[in-house]
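Justification of resources, computational component.

The compute hours requested in this renewal are based largely on the per-chain cost of generating structure records like the one below. Each record pairs the submitted sequence with a full structure-token output. That output is archived, and it is also reused by downstream analysis tasks.
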Amino acid sequence: VQLVESGGGLVQPGGSLRLSCAASGFTFSRYAMSWYRQAPGKERELVATITEANSVRIFADSVKGRFTISRDNAKTILYLQMDSLKPEDTAVYYCSVPRLRSWGQGTQVTVSS
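The structure output for this chain reads:
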């Protein structure tokens, strides 16, 4: 299993970023996928999950209405669209295949003016 995140960076408050996670080494379409994040000094937090059937659940109350998780099974890519970003969204963002207990290396998102 290989998961490679990209798309992080420095953005001003109110801005947007789209994170991508390129997946390989397993049958992507058959697994639920998740995004987690970990802010400095805090525990890793489950942000959102999308099932094999494209059912979406946003777990982090603080991102509801601002973040959207989606997937492209043909390209085996997981996405996280992040809008109206706030400084408290600053974290390393990880994609994960929960059933396979697999993680990517993470991508840093910094929201700051």
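The chain has a mean pLDDT of 95. DSSP finds no helices and eleven strands in the chain.
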